[in-house]
Amino acid sequence: MGSALIKGLHRSGNHTVIACDLDPDALESVADYVDRTTSEVSEAVTDADVVVVAVKPDIVGAVLSDLDLSPKQTLLSIAAGVPTDYVEARTDANVVRVMPNLAAETGDMAAAVTGDDIPEEVRQLLDAVGEFAEIDEAQMDIATAVNGSGPAFVFYLIQAMAEAGVEGGLEESDAETLAAQTFKGAAETVLRSDRSTEELIDAVCSPNGTTIEGMEVLWDSNADADVAAAVRAAEERSAELAAEFGDENDA
């Protein structure tokens, strides 16, 4: 996720980015997309307006213990399942929690963000790599499932459509292009249109046409329930992770 964010910010060209990691391979992988790399935490964060913590949840505490931030700085946490109050208890910085997704790399990110004070610098950063919604902390588990885990669910559906195309005689690369671009175009239509998704479905379905025949199969299936179940499972896991950090705060 951190790498995707770095590459997206590089594409925008409007931010000075310093990458910090103890793993030289990780730094090498993003070296072409940042102003400089370092393994020294103090060098990376001393003059930064926004410090992004993009690590696995189980090492967040260790990373925070190495950060000496001031109240004038903002710490942007993108560690899945780590509650804002856990981070706030371990830093003097203003804490903003965000759940982005991998599409930040291409400037098409969907992100959920929460915090008592979301500064303009953070809004500009997120705007540079996609769209974001400001939500309450209590909604972060479901947001994590919808937009954080969601790309994998969409990849699965793209794969299913592409495989159907291949079975029908399309070349694999052509089927994947058509399926992926169809998802991209449909998503843009939803974002730009004032019509509901139900209305958009009706707009594509001509009476006695091809689309309505396919939709009848979907309407008669459990596809919507299965997708909802996948989202709920991801939400429940996010809540479990958050509970573990809550228990640590109470200890």
From TrEMBL:
One of its GO terms (cellular component) is cytoplasm. Its main location: cytoplasm. It is found in: Cytoplasm. Pathway: Amino-acid biosynthesis; L-proline biosynthesis; L-proline from L-glutamate 5-semialdehyde: step 1/1. NADP(+) binds at A54, V55, K56, P57. Its EC number is 1.5.1.2. InterPro entries: 6-PGluconate_DH-like_C_sf, NAD(P)-bd_dom_sf, P5C_Rdtase_cat_N, P5CR_dimer, Pyrroline-COOH_reductase. It is an enzyme of class 1 (oxidoreductase). One of its GO terms (biological process) is L-proline biosynthetic process. It comes from the Archaea. Residues 137-241 form the Pyrroline-5-carboxylate reductase dimerisation domain. Residues 1-81 form the Pyrroline-5-carboxylate reductase catalytic N-terminal domain. Keywords: Amino-acid biosynthesis, Cytoplasm, NADP, Oxidoreductase, Proline biosynthesis. GO terms for molecular function: pyrroline-5-carboxylate reductase activity. It catalyses: L-proline + NADP(+) = (S)-1-pyrroline-5-carboxylate + NADPH + 2 H(+); L-proline + NAD(+) = (S)-1-pyrroline-5-carboxylate + NADH + 2 H(+). PANTHER family: PYRROLINE-5-CARBOXYLATE REDUCTASE, PYRROLINE-5-CARBOXYLATE REDUCTASE 3. Belongs to the pyrroline-5-carboxylate reductase family. NCBIfam families: proC. Catalyzes the reduction of 1-pyrroline-5-carboxylate (PCA) to L-proline. HAMAP family: P5C_reductase. This is Pyrroline-5-carboxylate reductase.
